[in-house]
Write a structure and sequence with these properties.
globular, six-stranded antiparallel sheet, 153 residues, three-stranded antiparallel sheet, 2 helices, mainly beta, disordered C terminus
């Protein structure tokens, strides 16, 4: 297994991210990033840069830099979005009940800045340790590749 970034190599998440206004977010993010991260939008399936990525590393919130998922929990759910079976730690994400679009879902947000990441689904029958699928938007994430020999795809 490749080495993941060490604490000194990890970018620290922005500590004041929760206090940022929507106008400040709009200024900092691209229109697509703002629509997904701050307005709970969804990118089209099979279009994001990470849906089929196999690079080892850590996936961080694109808005604030908080580390949320590791590549060793990523799996191919054949849904067109990056899918993980667990977050890096439960305190890295927050869950919000979402009853939009005529269905009951659980929204996943970055706990550091409150940005929309995607949704989590349970009981779909995937062969994973948790029976959960964290279906995330690529535009909500930034991949920090592992360091060391053999890093990359």
């Amino acid at each position: 297994m490749n080495d993941l970034p060490t604490p000194s190599e990890q970018k620290q998440p922005e500590q004041d991210a929760r206090g940022r206004s929507e106008a400040e977010w709009r200024e900092r993010l691209s229109p697509e990033e703002f629509q997904v991260l701050r307005q709970a939008g969804t990118e089209r399936p099979f279009t994001g840069e990470y849906w089929d990525a196999e690079t080892e590393g850590v996936y961080a919130c694109r808005a604030c830099g908080a580390e949320l998922f590791r590549s060793d929990t990523k799996f191919d759910a054949q849904c067109g979005w990056p899918s993980f079976f667990s977050p890096l730690a439960e305190d890295r994400v927050e869950y919000i009940r979402d009853a939009t679009l005529g269905m009951e879902r659980i929204e996943v947000r970055c706990a550091n800045c409150g940005s929309h990441m995607g949704h989590v689904f349970q009981g779909e029958g995937f062969d994973t340790p948790t029976d959960l699928r964290y279906c995330m938007n690529s535009v909500s994430l930034t991949l920090r590749p592992a360091t060391g020999e053999g890093a990359g795809e």
